[in-house]
Amino acid sequence: MKKLNILALLIFVAAVVSVFTLDTPTTREIQSRVMSLLSPFIHSSTAIEESISNVGAPTVDPKEVKRDNERLTIEVERLRIISQKYVQTLDENNQLRELIEFKKNSAFKMTAARVIKRVSSTWWNTMIIDKGSLDGLATDTPVISSAGLIGKTGKMAPHMAEVILLTDETCRVSAKVDGTLEQGIISGERAGLDLRPDLRLRFLNRTAVLQPGATVISTGEGGIFPAGLTIGRVKRFEMKDITGEAVVEPTVDFSQLKHVFVLDAQDNTAAAPSKTESGVPKAVPVSEAQAKP
Q1: Homologous superfamily, domain 106-274+281-285
Q2: Residue 12 pLDDT > 70, yes or no?
Q3: If you ran DSSP here, which 8-state letter would residue 60 be given?
């Protein structure tokens, strides 16, 4: 019986294979009937697969996605602005600390002021600060920063003052090249609005030998500017017909001025820095002729 069963099974399998492999009208008819019988089961399985797929992948609303993107864009922009303000505040705090430290260690009695107005047409000539006559300021007093000499005060208002910059042609200072005997008058030179002007140290010896990078400082002569204020550094020396001139690059960046210090003209005990043998500045008294009341 077992052999007969196996033989019958083999004959059945061979018949099924022949039905689905042979290409005859009879086999095609049988295949069609079998597919018709199985089609409900195939459709049911396909529906089940689609339902399972829909459960795993929820429907996405394009409008909701757009709203989420807009919310995220706004949040990113808000965080970027906060970051910029933080960096700006940090920079301002560092600058204020440096200003406080400079005023604390300075040999001069001075008033701190903030630049409140600059005009493009007079950018290299003047600026306005937020301190004036009622704040103890006077006309023709030196204005400085931690980098060096800026200029002098001009016209006064109760709580505002004009500052004539060192880069202006009318602001003249008696100056010398540190470490030499060369001395002259330094002032600004005319330049375009988009060009940072240099300074000119005039009336030097025609045969003077000056090294590029040499420091130029005030001499204290003239009764306005005390001695020892840093002005700039020599860029080059030019021989003129009778005298020599040095082109000087200011140590102060006049395009970035935000805070300044105005020296107290009524302080007869104000001191001008002078270098010791070790090169460290020390305080020496300014003469009565140098302290303008």
Answers
A1: Rod shape-determining protein MreC, domain 1 (2.40.10.340)
A2: no
A3: P
